[in-house]
């Protein structure tokens, strides 16, 4: 199957990846080839088969609702490119950015 | 014998006997790293100062007497997707080039609690995505057996460092073969643990339904010792299972009564003949030790590559959403937040990571979810059932790790599909969540190592280690040392 240029633009926007024109051309060809290969999965009749999301017999784990110490905030902010008042600081979300959200 | 040629168990025994100190053992490794690693690029960060301090503390603890932990003073190294507090942790990515971990991963902490000395952080494909370590933003690691070839991946730095005597053992991670395949390419032992066996707290996530942490070492007994230290339940990882960790050791070379499954789907057209010959010879050897080979079928094997390359990228696209220039790493400047996200990610992620994020985003997107991701999860069920049924008939499965030996750097990196097919024999066990061991079992005509893959049922690590140990101790492959 061949991905269109519009589909590549759409996927990149969903993934929040700014790609160059050259990257879009490259991924369009490579992802189309990979999807062709993946299409062989449609050969398999899975009508009665349940999906596997995890191989483990997991159940929700509960713990007592007790306050415990967590990692110190300054340590967690240390890797942030911009921080103020114990918070991550970012450029405006609404002004000029609303069309992206 | 130089200190760096000792196995982990030999070094631990000499430390316990007092015939060597951790200080000299650690210094010997740091010296060899300084001499040899410029040619290999196995280490991304060498924590020399801390390592020597840890070594001196270990020596002091031993001198003080009393109970000593099993790895006291033993130098080890860690794949750079595992957090070590106050140490740079890059995941092989430019997007984390300045990231200093605020805490230590449980698996690493357990090695520290067992007395280990940490030499540094090891190179890998970016976010563990790759089969060659060529996807590291910090340059490829080279195979110690042939510097023009890849060490495998994504734990290529771990495998190369162990093979080149730059550490006594290492931790790697395996999502679709990333411990076993580099172990095979570099001629060392690598254990992919059962999904849920080792806590992933502090592991930078790639494919959360698949990621596992496992040891690489030069002998099965060394890998077993490391496994026994890192395994077990951790309340900080809800997917780590409260299963008892079996006692390891006391193994013999007598395999009478053992049923070894030989899956016909794992010997395919196009695989390197030397690999098939070596693995068939290894199965004959197991038979000579008393085991009974039984031909089996794992009929959905051919679907593992497409299933994996939907599920893992889908999970990756969600896991890597957290890297957007706000909480970590460098930020691309822009006036609006969405532009910051897109520019930071576009500029800082490497080609393969972007490719997998795109693939995973597509597989999860509206209109395609059922046909791709949903179908992949159902076929995953069939792959898991193949193994469930096989282990009703056999105790372990023996097969190749990879269809080829180490390939030259640069030959597959621009052809993603060719690279993905490299994982054809390691992906099915990953999708089933079962343990797998890679043990050296031969060389091709170029002298490149070949690995035997031994698979067991979920939480059956003891079984694959026992069989791998019997094979290893009655063959000479693990004694081979690359000339560097």
Describe the structure.
The complex is a heterodimer of chains A (101) and B (484). Chain A has 101 residues and is mostly helical. Chain A has a domain at 1-45: Glu-tRNAGln amidotransferase C subunit, N-terminal domain (Histone, subunit A), CATH 1.10.20. Helices cover 33% and strands 4% of the residues of chain A. Chain A is built from 3 helices and 2 strands. Chain A has a two-stranded antiparallel ribbon with strand order 1-2. In chain A, β1 (83-84) and β2 form a beta hairpin. Chain B is of the alpha/beta class and 484 residues long. Chain B has one domain (1-484): Amidase signature (AS) enzymes (Alpha-Beta Complex). Chain B has 15 helices and 11 strands. In chain B, strands 1-3-2-4-6-5-10-11-9-7-8 form an 11-stranded mixed β-sheet, with helices on both faces. In chain B, α4 (106-113) links the parallel β2 and β3 (117-122). In chain B, α9 packs across α11 (351-364) and α9 (304-319) crosses α12 (370-393). Chain B is globular and about 65 Å long. Chain B starts with 7 loop residues before the first helix and ends in an 11-residue tail after the last helix. At the A-B interface, α1 and α2 of A face α9, α10, α11, α12 and α13 of B.
How would you briefly describe this protein structure?
The complex is a heterodimer of chains A (101) and B (484). Chain A has helices at residues 5-14, 21-38, 73-77, and strands at residues 83-84, 87-88.
Q: Could you please say which CATH topology of chain B applies here?
A: Amidase signature (AS) enzymes
* CATH class category of chain B: Alpha Beta
Strand % of chain A is under 5%
Number of strands of chain A: 2
Shape of chain B: globular
Query: Which regions of chain A have little confidence, pLDDT < 50, spanning 5+ residues?
Result: 97-101
In CATH, the homologous superfamily of chain B goes by the name: Amidase signature (AS) domain
Compute the gyration radius of chain B: what is it?
21 Å
Structural class designation of chain B? alpha/beta
SSE run of chain A = HHHEE
Name of the CATH architecture of the domain at 1-45 in chain A: Orthogonal Bundle
Helicity of chain B, as a percent range: 25-40%
Oligomer: heterodimer
- Strand order, sheet with most strands of chain B: 1-3-2-4-6-5-10-11-9-7-8
């Amino acid at each position: 199957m061949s991905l269109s240029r519009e589909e590549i633009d759409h996927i990149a926007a969903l993934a929040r990846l700014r790609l160059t024109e050259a990257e879009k051309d490259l991924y369009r060809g490579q992802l189309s080839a990979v999807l062709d290969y993946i299409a062989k999965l449609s050969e398999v009749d899975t009508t009665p088969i349940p999906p596997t999301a995890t191989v483990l017999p997991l159940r929700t784990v509960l713990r007592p609702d007790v306050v415990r110490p967590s990692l110190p905030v300054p340590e967690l902010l240390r890797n942030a490119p911009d921080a103020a008042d114990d918070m991550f600081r970012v450029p405006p979300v609404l002004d000029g950015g609303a069309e992206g959200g | 014998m130089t200190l760096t040629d000792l196995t982990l168990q030999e070094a631990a025994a000499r430390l316990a006997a007092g015939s060597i100190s951790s200080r000299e053992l650690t210094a010997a490794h740091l010296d060899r790293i300084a001499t040899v690693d410029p040619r290999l690029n196995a280490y991304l960060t060498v924590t020399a100062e801390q390592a020597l301090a840890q070594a001196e503390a270990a020596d002091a603890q031993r001198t003080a007497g009393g109970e000593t932990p099993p790895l006291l003073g033993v130098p080890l190294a860690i794949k750079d997707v595992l957090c070590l507090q106050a140490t740079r942790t890059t995941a092989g990515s430019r997007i984390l080039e300045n990231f200093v971990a605020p805490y230590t991963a449980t698996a690493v902490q357990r090695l520290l609690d067992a007395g280990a000395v940490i030499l540094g952080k090891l190179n890998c494909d970016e976010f563990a995505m790759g089969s060659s370590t060529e996807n590291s933003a910090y340059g490829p690691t080279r195979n110690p057996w042939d510097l023009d070839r890849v060490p495998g991946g994504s734990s290529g730095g771990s495998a190369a460092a162990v093979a080149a005597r730059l550490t006594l053992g290492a931790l790697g991670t395996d999502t679709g073969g990333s411990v076993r395949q580099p172990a095979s390419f570099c001629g060392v032992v690598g254990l992919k643990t059962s999904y849920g066996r080792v806590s992933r707290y502090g592991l930078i996530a790639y494919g959360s339904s698949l990621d596992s942490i496992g040891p690489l070492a030069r002998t099965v007994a060394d890998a077993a010792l490391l496994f026994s230290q890192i395994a077990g339940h951790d309340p900080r990882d809800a997917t780590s299972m409260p299963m008892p960790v079996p006692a390891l050791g006391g193994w013999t070379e007598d395999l009478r009564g053992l049923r070894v499954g030989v899956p016909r789907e794992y010997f395919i057209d196009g695989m390197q003949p030397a690999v098939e010959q070596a693995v068939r010879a290894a199965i004959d050897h197991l038979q000579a030790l008393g085991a009974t080979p039984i031909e089996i079928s794992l009929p959905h094997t051919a679907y593992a590559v497409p299933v994996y390359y939907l599920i893992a990228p889908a999970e990756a696209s969600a896991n890597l959403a957290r890297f957007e220039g706000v909480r970590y790493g460098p930020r691309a400047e822009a006036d609006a937040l969405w532009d910051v996200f897109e520019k930071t990610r576009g500029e800082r992620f490497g080609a393969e990571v972007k490719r997998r994020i795109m693939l995973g985003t597509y597989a999860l997107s509206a209109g395609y979810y059922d046909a791709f991701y949903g179908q992949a999860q159902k076929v995953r069920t069939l792959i898991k059932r193949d193994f469930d049924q096989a282990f009703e008939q056999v105790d372990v499965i023996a097969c190749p790790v990879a269809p080829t030996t180490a390939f030259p750097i640069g030959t597959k990196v621009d052809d993603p599909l060719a690279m993905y097919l490299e994982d054809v024999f390691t992906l099915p066990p990953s999708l089933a969540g079962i343990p797998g061991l890679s043990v050296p079992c031969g060389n091709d005509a170029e002298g490149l190592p070949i690995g035997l893959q031994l698979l067991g049922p979920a939480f059956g690590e003891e079984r694959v280690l026992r069989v791998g140990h019997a094979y290893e101790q009655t063959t000479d492959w693990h004694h081979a040392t690359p000339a560097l």
